Amino acid sequence: xxxxxxxxxxxLAWILLAVSVGGGCSGKEQIKxxxxxxxxxxxxxxxxxxxxxxxxxKSQRWLPLTIGYFADVPGYSVTYAVIKEKKLLEKRGLxxxxxxxxxxxxxxxxxxxxxxxxxHYGDFPFWLTVDKGAPxxxxxxxxxxxxxxxxxxxxSLINRPEDLKQEGKQTVxxxxxxxxxxxxxxAMSERKGLIRGKDFRIAGLSMRDAQLLPKxxxxxxxxxxxxxxxxxxxxxxxxxxxxxxxxxxxxxxxRSEIHENAPDVVQALADAAVxxxxxxQRNPEVAADIFRKDPRxxxxxxxxxxxQVKRYTAYPPEFRxxxxxFWTGEDSRIIKTLHAxxxxxxxxxxxxxxxxxxxxxxxxxxxxxxxxxxxxxxFLPLDWQGQVAQPPYPDYITxxxxxxxxxxxxxxxTGE
Length: 416
Prior knowledge:
The chain has 18 helices and ten strands. By secondary structure, the chain is α/β, with parallel strands linked by helices. The protein folds into two domains: 4-144 and 248-409, Periplasmic binding protein-like II (D-Maltodextrin-Binding Protein, domain 2), CATH 3.40.190; 148-244, D-Maltodextrin-Binding Protein, domain 2 (3-Layer(aba) Sandwich). Helix 5 crosses helix 12 (263-282) and helix 12 crosses helix 17. The relative contact order is 0.19. Mean pLDDT is 90; it is low at 1-8 and 16-36.
């Protein structure tokens, strides 16, 4: 994505609105103030979960409520690390416990199996979860436009995705199956005229293994921070990115029974999610240090984690709101792909997809904060001419653009 979007003023306008609501001081002044008093980000009294809802959770043996999150994806999961460290749910009267997972199927299996009642992961496995009949309601987006990219070894003769098609050889691409990295391959192949199973095959790898570009694969598809890790260590070079092909996201969600029987619990989760973003945007290095307390992050430098945190929380906090028409339209492509491959039981309609989305919680959160939710996702320029679900997409504001503009202007989306 180029800098054309900057001239539209959309993103900078949202950042300036965030700063002005906080009292009129500049972004740099607010950051300085935050370093002196990092706790002062939530301007409201903490609403308490009702005794009735706590009693209901206890009757389900879901007290404390168990939350699953990724231990190795700081751009997405740093919010949960902050919620845990700062006890943002306990402050709202909700006892919770946390379980962290490495990227891959275990976090999905834990939710489907009932070990967790709250979780978050990418839209590709989310819709697989829905199709399996798991009772699920999404109340927020964990993050948006997390980079997915194809890498090859530095000495590879493959310089673009089309080079995967080779005479007399089926190339091998390593990635995590059942993830949005797999959907990148489907979307990319459609645009490039490649056929999975003929021109290339997929080898299932964990992100930790794939980032090392092991022998036996010709290319890998990674998401951050594994992309950045592989590039910094010179293990591979990037030959393609998913930004032209699809908008990716991850959902925050609960078991539907909680939404139906204890909505104030979901509201507490939504409020804490936004408070965590506000804290992170004012204290990105503090948030990165909190995330790095997990020993499984030892392989990643502090600088890498800080850069990930800044990059993927650089949008104004409204990025977490689920614009139902936009996201179900975009994710209908995932449904189409999964159904064509026989991996889901039905071709879910957009209206059916909307039934598992509850945007009203963040609507209430932002209303309480006096913030207006934009009519479309914050990363779309005012004059964006694209059509959802019809790639390739015209320029839009990627996290790389957002953090670069923040650094250049000195105006940061403080969330206030």
